[in-house]
Amino acid sequence: MKPSRFFLLITTISFTIIAGCGLFGTGSSRNNSTNSNLNNGNTNTVSAPLFSPASDTYASAIVVTISSDTSGADIYYATDGSTPSCSGTKYTNSIPVASGSKTIKAIACKSGMDSSEIISATYTISSSSTNIAPPAFSPDGGSYSTPQAVTISASTSGSVIHYTIDSAPPADPDCSSTIYSSAINIGAGSTKAIKAIACNAAGYKSPISSATYIIDSNGNTCGTLYQACCPIPSTVPSIIGCNDHTTLYCDKINNVYTCQAKLGEGATCISAIQCLDPRDACTVVMGRRQCYYEE
């Protein structure tokens, strides 16, 4: 009987040791703890950056914005092919993509959380997006006998017109100048010069267009090519300006364009345009300005 009691005692002790080694309840608890730690890691990671618009090919220039669904997260990015990090270039403003192809890589970071995975987006812009057509004026610049309502248009889709206007040549406009929204009225007796430019959302701009409008309420008009002005009979080409262009020239007196008689040789002149013979020069002869031609 003694050997039997001894065997039972050893069996009991063995079972206790095996149970204490965790082959039953203790091992399951460690696995649950590991799973819990993994779940905590997932919820403590910053949400990945989101690009808008999506990576794609576009027919015109675009502006890319980057965000994260994690509140308070900062975004860092790179466009030179390098890998962004939480100590790199911080995203603060939208990124324009105007031409060619550009790849943007971004990471989202927040103190106390694991940084997000790095996300990249590639954008390709067709070459036509940077070719912005200059604005067009209607009517064309020139001299008119009645007030004009000048409209400015842009043929490039998505572009916005900016302009400057003055009685003297105005400053060149840029993409921060006054936005054109309605017809510009040029009143009677006034002279206005307008310059306009078209800009797209990425900040690219067209060449500058310009036009000058002269409104003469007395019915006098100007030919734009030679700046010849005066009442124009229907039988005379408007490019000439004065009805008898062989003996008249156009002058502006008291801000009104009028036809003045051309002067023969020996007559007092101010400029050669007054001289009757195109070979004449307005020069000083014997102390007096005269139309004079010498063979």
* SS elements, strand count: 22
Helix and strand content put the structural class at: mainly beta
**Name of the CATH class of the largest domain:** Mainly Beta
Poorly predicted sequence stretches spanning 5 or more consecutive residues = 6-41, 219-241
Share of residues in strands: 35-45%
Radius of gyration equals 42 Å
Strands of the widest sheet, in order across it, are: 2-8-7-4-5
Number of contiguous helices: 2
Q: What is the distance, rounded to the nearest whole angstrom, between the alpha carbons of the first and last residues?
A: 160 Å
The appropriate CATH architecture of the largest domain is Sandwich
Q: Any idea what the shape is?
A: elongated
Into which percent range does the helicity of residues fall? 10-25%
Mean pLDDT: 75
Order of helices and strands: HHEEEEEEEEEEEEEEEEEEEEEE
Give the CATH topology of the largest domain: Immunoglobulin-like
Q: Largest beta sheet, briefly?
A: 5 strands, mixed
Q: Can you tell me the number of structural domains?
A: 3
